[in-house]
Write a structure and sequence with these properties.
Layout: H1 2-28, H2 44-68, H3 78-101, H4 112-146
């Protein structure tokens, strides 16, 4: 019971931190003001931002698996960490590009919220994969020293 409550609170704190970071990115990019007219439906930039956000989320999951399970079937150690690194880098570059070319804030159809989410998730994927690669390198070096 206590463990479940702690997991729920940690999850809520993580979501709150993610929302704060996305808002900070929107403020830093000067696109935090809502659009005067709201565009409904899927635009090409919203689709682009959604695809990049999903890619960043995949990078976070693979980076987490590479960090937690260095040599499992799902994240094969170094290969999984490199995949997460590439996915995170692609997400960061595309998120920053979308924010740079955006002409309006949330609701304008430019995909700025998705781009900010992709930027934050991409940075998280980069950090996770970097730590996993460092851990893998350290374990390989330690194994070579023992031999």
């Amino acid at each position: 019971m206590k463990r479940t409550l702690v997991l729920i609170l940690v999850g809520l704190a993580g979501v709150a931190l993610f929302v704060v970071l996305v808002h900070a990115v929107l403020v830093a990019a000067h696109v935090s003001e809502p659009a005067p007219t709201t565009v409904y439906g899927l635009t090409s930039r919203r689709l682009w931002a959604t695809i990049v956000t999903v890619l960043a989320l995949v990078g976070v999951v693979v980076g987490m698996l590479a960090l937690v399970r260095p040599a499992s079937r799902f994240a094969a150690g170094r290969l999984g960490a490199i995949g997460a690194l590439v996915a995170g880098l692609i997400a960061v570059v595309n998120g920053a590009l979308l924010l740079a070319i955006a002409t309006g804030g949330p609701g304008s159809g430019n995909g700025v919220v998705g781009a900010a989410g992709a930027l934050v998730l991409g940075l998280i994927a980069l950090v996770l994969s970097g730590v996993a690669l460092l851990r893998w390198r350290r374990s390989v070096t330690a194994a070579n020293v023992v031999d």
